Amino acid sequence: MKSPVHRCRDVEHGRAQTGAGSNCLQPEQRIPISRDVITSSSFSAMWFIRDTCGIVCAIITWLLVFYAEFVVLFVMLVPSKNLTYSIVNGTLFNTLSFLALASHLRAMCTDPGAVPKGNATKEYIESLQLKPGQVVYKCPKCCSIKPDRAHHCSVCKRCIRKMDHHCPWVNNCVGENNQKYFVLFTMYIALISLHSLVMVVFHFLYCFEDDWTKCSSFSPPATVILLILLCFEGLLFLIFTSVMFGTQVHSICTDETGIEQLKKEERRWAKKTKWMNLRAVFGHHFSLLWLSPFSTPDHGKAETYQYVV
């Protein structure tokens, strides 16, 4: 059995910063860790990371979706002579785009599972019932009680439960509380990318067979440029988001985050079936709500995080 000091990652490096007068908990102290202790008080509040790079990437994401909307509607669907074709594809594309942007907003503005900052103080520990045989992890960077499978994010400046990675495109970490929304975001972006590519192909075939001046409200050169740019954007994001969607689903099914796979961390948590792992992320009952970014899944609030030596 490994010793507590060996298992306390990111702890032994912080000893030099913890002097005799510091309020931060020493790594060797042991306490039971309930979910109430490690749940951020900002979970119900608005969450937003003030990172310049992330904000710029998030704005670019929305602008690219709006560009695709513009080309699909005003270059391909509105000039189309087939009303049914325009209504069906317009409704489908706008619905998927709305769900993609809603998922992006939820992934960006949802607390990913941040641990309360600076709660690893002696005063706070004294208010808890101490039990021998259990060890607490302390993050030396944010002085917080660090549950297992949590990692410190240098951008968010917080410890995040089940942190997979920090994604600048959603300007947030992908963690325990917002992984569902990130998966939905990648899925819907991949779907609208594929849909736009299919419509571009059909529109090119239609324009080749008919007069270029009649197949679009724009001039033929402008139409070609707009369609080529949309084709490039759709192909690029179809590949990127499809790969991200696949890696996220694989990570969920194996119950191993991207950081844990990268660091090849030893598995110390109970192994569950793939179906149980999917239910833990998307919700406890399979339904269409799994595909809704407006449905908040239950991540098992009664769960207790304990660290037995």
Key structural traits:
mainly alpha, two-stranded antiparallel sheet, 8 strands, EC 2.3.1.225, disordered C terminus, 309 residues, single chain, 48% helix, 9 helices
Task: Summarize the helices and strands and which ones pair or pack.
Layout: H1 4-7, E1 33-34, H2 35-38, H3 52-77, H4 83-109, H5 122-126, E2 137-139, E3 144-146, E4 150-153, E5 158-161, E6 165-167, E7 172-174, H6 179-209, H7 220-254, H8 258-263, H9 274-282, E8 304-305
Antiparallel strand pairs: 1-8, 2-3, 4-5, 6-7
Report on the architecture of this protein.
It is a single chain. Helices cover 48% and strands 8% of the residues. A two-stranded antiparallel ribbon has the order 1-8. It has a two-stranded antiparallel ribbon with strand order 2-3. A two-stranded antiparallel sheet has the order 4-5. The model is unreliable at 1-32 and 301-309 (pLDDT under 50). Helix 3 packs antiparallel against helix 4 (83-109), helix 4 packs antiparallel against helix 6 (179-209) and helix 6 packs antiparallel against helix 7 (220-254). A hairpin with a 4-residue loop joins strand 6 and strand 7 (172-174). With 309 residues, the chain is mainly alpha-helical. The chain has helices at residues 4-7, 35-38, 52-77, 83-109, 122-126, 179-209, 220-254, 258-263, 274-282, and strands spanning 33-34, 137-139, 144-146, 150-153, 158-161, 165-167, 172-174, 304-305. The longest helix has 35 residues, at 220-254. The protein has nine helices and eight strands. Residues 1-24 are annotated as: Disordered. Keywords: Acyltransferase, Membrane, Transferase, Transmembrane, Transmembrane helix. It holds the Pfam family DHHC. It comes from Ameca splendens. Its main location: membrane.
